[in-house]
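Subject: Sanity check before I submit

Could someone independently write out the structure tokens for this chain? I want to compare against mine line by line before I put it in a report. The sequence has 1013 residues.
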Amino acid sequence: MHRLRTCAARLRPLTACQMAQSPSQPRPAQAPLRTFPQPTRHYTAPVAAEPFLNGTSSNYVEEMYYSWLENPKSVHKSWDIFFRNANAGAPPGAAYQSPLPLGGDLRGPGLGQAVVGSQPSVEKLVEDHLAVQTLIRAYQIRGHHVAQLDPLGIMDADLDSCVPTDIITSSDKLGFYGLDEADLDKVFRLPTTTFIGGNESALPLREIIRRLEMAYCQHIGVEFMFINDIDQCQWIRQKFEKPGVMQFTLEEKRTLLARMVRSTRFEEFLQRKWSSEKRFGLEGCESLIPALKTIIDKSSENGVENVIMGMPHRGRLNVLANVIRKELEQIFCQFDSKLEAADEGSGDVKYHLGMYHRRINRVTDRNITLSLVANPSHLEAVDPVVQGKTKAEQFYCGDADGKRVMSILLHGDAAFAGQGIVYETFHLSDLPSYTTHGTVHVVVNNQIGFTTDPRMARSSPYPTDVARVVNAPIFHVNADDPEAVVYVCNVAAEWRATFHKDVVVDLVCYRRNGHNEMDEPMFTQPLMYKQIRKQKGVLQKYAEKLIAEGVVTRQEYEEEISKYDKICEEAYARSKDEKILHIKHWLDSPWPGFFTLDGQPKSMSCPSTGLNEEELENIGRVASSVPEEDFTIHGGLSRILKGRAAMIQSRMVDWALGEYMAFGSLLKEGIHVRLSGQDVERGTFSHRHHVLHDQNVDKRTCIPMNHLSSNQAPYTVCNSSLSEYGVLGFELGFAMASPNALVLWEAQFGDFHNMAQCIIDQFICPGQAKWVRQNGIVLLLPHGMEGMNETSNMKSTIIHQCDLPVRQLYDCNWIVVNCSTPANYFHVLRRQILLPFRKPLIIFTPKSLLRHPEAKSSFDEMLPGTHFQRMIPDDGSTCKNPGAVKRLIFCTGKVYYELVKERRSRGMEDTVAISRIEQLSPFPFDLVKAETDKFPQAEIAWCQEEHKNQGYYDYVKPRLRTTTDQARPIWYVGRDPAAAPATGNKKAHLVELQRLLDTAFKLDAFKALENFC
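---
Independent answer below. Compare away.
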């Protein structure tokens, strides 16, 4: 049990265990008073001694104990005395008391009277069997705390040097259980909650302790006793407690050695060829490669056909080469600084890029598809993206139980403990619309984060403790023991296949170099790196072990090394011929056949997005009805459905119906629609109601949109957890899997997208330029200046991330719209699918316009031949005499209706034109120019409801100037600059609004202003 400790004392608060053992508070020599555990039914209950007295079974004793706790009179008086004495603190061997004659005093020793009785041997037998059961349970719960996990022998994986009091590390600890050395050779019956006996039902105490140490205190530490399912606990116990479970055949050992050779020699080859290049190598955790291959092999054996992986940069090139089996020359040529890009996009550094490969698994002789999702330097940002992509692949292949498609996520220890996205992703793991039916998490535990000591980087004992929130078992393993690593990974893959739940493998290792190959780690971790410099490599240690066992000869080992070195050298020679980088080799989500039609590139035109009237009426009838019989809906919802029916009758749609028409039509065309986010089923503003709830039957729901036609695509609408970062990443991954689906994420309020800014900045905004990957995800961001909780800051954030391409729509990084009519919202959603390519679509959706009496559209605006209008020109009386128009106001969104109302009240319909820019990016230069040319005498103004330093002003200003005669000024109409978007006071808000409207319609107002752009 002895473990080396670092010379430097660890400065941290004393744990309860340390305080108990500290010199200032020495542990009492006598055993502490023992009490029976309180009944916690959902945990594995302690089992009492095996048959004693009259053959009473341990299960019977346990039932007696629980019965006694509930009602002391429900058990025999002798048991009542025994349990009361034990709970009152009777010393070991003194709790049992013979039944007294009728009328005798039944009080126990802890209740004021000495124990009477004449059977100390029977008492001791009962106590000792209970003690042995408690001892076994202690190892199952806390054995991992003393497991030999650190390959360096200087650190504690749990950041605690304390040995739990109830773990037997020396004979003097036997007293804790009321046992002594004389009991070591006594034979004890084993309870049903352990498998250490194998085929034996009883063992000497000495052998019990030895086997517990072998199971829980060697190179594997198992955390599982917090799981509240007895069958799952028993399954894990069986995997680790049975004697001889970790046995490998000669062939398995030789295969493991070959994989270790590939993992190690790959890094050494890169170091020899490019010693000054950053590559974030795997040195110190070379066993990761056989670990991943073992998980994939076992999963393939269990029927998995598709594995989707996400990981940070450490070891990424090695995983690409030796797990996914990317061509080595494609990796090596990335180190050539003269390499030119043949494809569009800037790409990213080689240790961020992804990969997709379908190949034969040589162990199982089955086809398997492997993909590694591209990931930026935000280490854990890829986690929900992988989960979303996995969910999509399961959905499209009908894998309802996750038996054919699975995910593997790799993590660093510091990021796993420190980044909240890990917690968000775990909490998606068992939600019906987000579960991937189990993920294998592999933590590369360097025991350091960049330069930060783990004692300063986390408050939890292990970096993996976040996984306990979903009852995921955690298998800690010393990464310098390859056989232990492989065994644990086999168990992890079997767990996932058996229970379809998450599992964590914690590879406790070290980082031989610094944060990267150019970093000097001795600056901050001198003691650790002194030990690392002396540390023998894991390949060398394992090879020596196998040679000593006679599994391989030294010649065979050296031949295996030479064989792989030759493969690397030949690939290196071929890489010299690669003068051009073809980014197609690095795609993680190819869409075969999407960009071509009959072998030819698709036309770049977009057909009409309108529908015939019969189709609109059909969808409208479903939207205003309850398709299921005997279904009781809320009275208020009945009024809403009647209102929808009335609108359909009058050939009109509001915002909710326009969305319904778009979704329903795409579903009938075979396009899967998935809408996700907080409260999207009803809609944050109670306007959508896509899921109806029976008012009398719990959990009975109806989704009318799934009743459109018999051969429609399924509609998925799902309320998410209260997460933006994780859920948006999930939906991005879902949209990544297929271009033939409309995937939407709606923020509860628009500015909530701030919490998901990493996904937007790293994946959505630069998706095509950085990763050469198109994506059609739609972001619905509710907004509006209402004077209270405003969300306008998001507009300037998003709009200034738009690029300015030559081929605007095809080359833009995303499309940003602010629709002012339900018809235009309907068209832009349908256009998203009918376009021959995919771009992220950002829609600033309204709040007050959801029920605005003028924000309605006629069927005529949605019929065949109609399209999305990038700009809606003024089509009122100003068109009759354009030369008389004094002012042309450009605006977008809700403020249009306030401007129109004010213009009407002032009687200025003939002199002021108001035009709406509906698509802000790509900017409609052509339509704006045509509009300004139509009103040659008019002053041009940009009006926005947001403050000047927010909203779209800084984005629109140079684009308006580009489209107009430079002699014509562009005026700003809106609120003054401000730090906060809202006044928080309704009266102040209305004063600001009136000032805005006054400026917009006082034709001489600009002469006194200095707002000239």
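---
OP: Matches mine. For the report I'm noting this point. The radius of gyration is 35 Å.
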